[in-house]
Amino acid sequence: MAAPTMYLFINYCVLLMQVTVRDALNQAMDEELERDERVFLLGEEVAQYDGAYKISRGLWKKYGDKRIIDTPITEMGFAGIAVGAAMAGLRPICEFMTFNFSMQAIDQVINSAAKTYYMSAGLQPVPIVFRGPNGASAGVAAQHSQCFAAWYSHCPGLKVVSPWSAEDAKGLLKSAIRDDNPVVFLENELMYGVPFEMSEEAQSKDFIIPIGKAKIERQGNHVTLVSHSRMVSLCLDAAAVLAKEGIECEVINMRTIRPLDAEAIETSIMKTNHLITVEGGWPQFGVGAEILGRIMEGPAFNYLDAPAVRVTGVDIPMPYAKILEDNSIPQIKDIIFSVKKTLNV
Q1: DSSP at 99
Q2: Domains in the chain, ordered, with CATH?
């Protein structure tokens, strides 16, 4: 390889670095802890153990006991402490080992955090981030596999974020930490170790992604696929298979569940004339149901050439057996089947 070509290749590698979602989340917290002394992290095993999923690796050694705080297994207790700290002017990051355990603290999240800014007529902000893994993992059965995107996005006063890529994770977490509203930040355990290319811009300490803006991950003109978190990967994989058959899917990564970027979805439907939503959660009153309702009531409905369709998890508690688990959450083949059925091909 000639020297100039090698130089360009090295520079390209620097501009597009491979970063896992885990490391992107770690970078975001590290940068915000450094930037603002009011920011602190608390939760189970976040300090000396470096986090149950190693998201907070190295932060305790760098910032010490006052900024990175290990708590007992008492979600209602430490969530309440975090909400009180936010009301007192700090900016806590409250980690749940899994959002399934946030049910222990839902009174603090909804009644104490979400409603206070409104009930105080804007006098008492509650700048707090509740974060941790959400949705199905692998082999952890029903009590550890719910998706809480619909649960929390039902509640006014909360912002609900569900990132997919490393760039999403970093940019959106930084925005969430800086926001004066309580933010529920729904990660996915199966995405933590997945590497993504991150641009030079995303590697900057000033990089943020505005909450409430979806992103088109793949352009297409035959059908719109809308999803969030890990399901974006499945949509992209399905789109790659369908492209070989001449079917071009537009894949929208929601990134934020509340506020919902309905405009981005409507604009896409006006181009493709078809809509399929894909999510790992249950169908009844789910994220897809809300999107279909919004489209039915809005201007994009008249552009649909076929009924909008939902691809969701099965309406049962998650089974433990792997073969049953695989049949309980969307697979690539389910998305392909729905696309072909919608397009009548």
Answers
A1: G
A2: 18-198 (3.40.50.970), 215-343 (3.40.50.920)
